[in-house]
């Protein structure tokens, strides 16, 4: 049963408002659809609310405090766009619950969502023509579908086939099998010729495998120049060749901004209409590397601007024989507010996210992006936004699995977790946090180091070596799950209820996940813990550590998990 409070702000008999509700049965999918549409002038606000009512709810935007199921969190009139705030880089208009029905809101709705504030224990969908949406819209509209199915798994598969889409190809295999080694968390912006060479040699001498060596911020002469700073990197081409000689591929960090003091590139872009302007005609915005300047965001909704950007990245790659690129940012909120973009005005401001990500995806399967709106089809890794070096739900280790699940159920199944141990902004990771973070990553699609195992003692190195190898051993299993995602639309890392969507215990579990439909990982994510409770859904399971056969469904109470142990289980039937 669905109980809703429809039309809280506008009455259906308002002469300025159009309200339609259609109900139909889809026999081919054995599902019912309720389609609701409100339309009126831009000064009208539409607000429909539905009770959480004891069900488990999933999907919604990527969040800094990523609670799972999502009714355990709280959002207050929250714009559903890809934005910097709260790490909401991935924002889709899709919500699923354990009763087997889902909501999908159309992309042209100026949408806000609210959990628990407008009405207690309710999710509310609000359409309002106000920032960050364009004030130049012709009207306001709230359009959404509610689809009803037997259970959440069937419902999600229908949502993928009908709205979300699925990846069209595989990312780079070596990135799946072996770790990316990034300079970011370890060095921040303090990189130069010597530090990069020393880091590459450290990794080589450690004996750890690699997918690639990633040169992050700050290598440019100014932000947006895409020109190497020869004071820091006097022979960059030779350095890259030397690093490649150690057995690495090399990738480099790139962003979509140009700071105002970065000349002549800034003036060229401005004069040619390559920068996003706001409704007052200003390109001035902000990002995390303002550096006392005023940045602008390249307007990827202008194909000429996208071509200009791409040609400059291509020149950089070809000049220095760089293998691939880490494409950062891309969220719409980096635009000057309220932005004017090309394309249908009712899709502003999200147009630029899709345009940016689709532009850079042309650089091939080794790239990574971090933002997404309607880009689930792209065959590239999408990175979680930076995690903090903490244990808790304030963007710490506790949110690693929940973010993985949220991204997968939004249709983004090719997930690149961020740095093992977090970004180190608040502190460097302890040995315990570093090891537990690595273990939580093992059955995710790839590993990414920046802080290194040998920052700690020999035990940490050996544990890290063990789990880096375990991940490599399961690379083909990861690829199998990715192929299933491409062909069938299934998550690469589903929630454990995927194996039994009627299991009430499984529907509530937030700290376990699957790889495909065969491996269950239950990492320890509590500081000081040497055991944890593990829930296994129905099936015959084999303990990955002991080889013991276990029949589910069952709770394993106080499963022993000292620091060198990752609880994981393999489904045998």
Relevant terms:
573 residues, alpha+beta, Immunoglobulin-like, 6-stranded antiparallel beta sheet, 5-stranded antiparallel beta sheet
Describe the structure.
One of its GO terms (molecular function) is hydrolase activity, hydrolyzing O-glycosyl compounds. This protein is an alpha+beta fold and 573 residues long. Among the domains are: 161 residues, Immunoglobulin-like; 86 residues, Immunoglobulin-like (Sandwich). Helix content is 24%, strand content 23%. It is built from 13 helices and 28 strands. Strand 26 and strand 27 form a beta hairpin. Helix 10 runs parallel beside helix 11.
Biggest β-sheet, characterized?
A: 6 strands, antiparallel
Beginning-to-end CA distance, first to last residue: 34 Å
The CATH class of the domain at 4-164 is identified as: Mainly Beta
**With helices defined by DSSP (H or I, 4 residues minimum), what is the helix count?**
13
Going by helix content, strand content and strand pairing, the class is: alpha+beta
**Order of neighbouring strands in the sheet with most strands:** 2-3-11-8-7-5
* Spans of at least 5 consecutive residues with low confidence: none
Q: What's the helical proportion of residues?
A: 10-25%
Cα shape = globular
Averaged pLDDT, please?
A: 96
Rounded radius of gyration (Å)? 24 Å
Beta-strand content bin: 15-25%
The CATH architecture of the domain at 4-164 comes to Sandwich
The total strand number stands at 28
CATH topological fold name of the domain at 4-164: Immunoglobulin-like
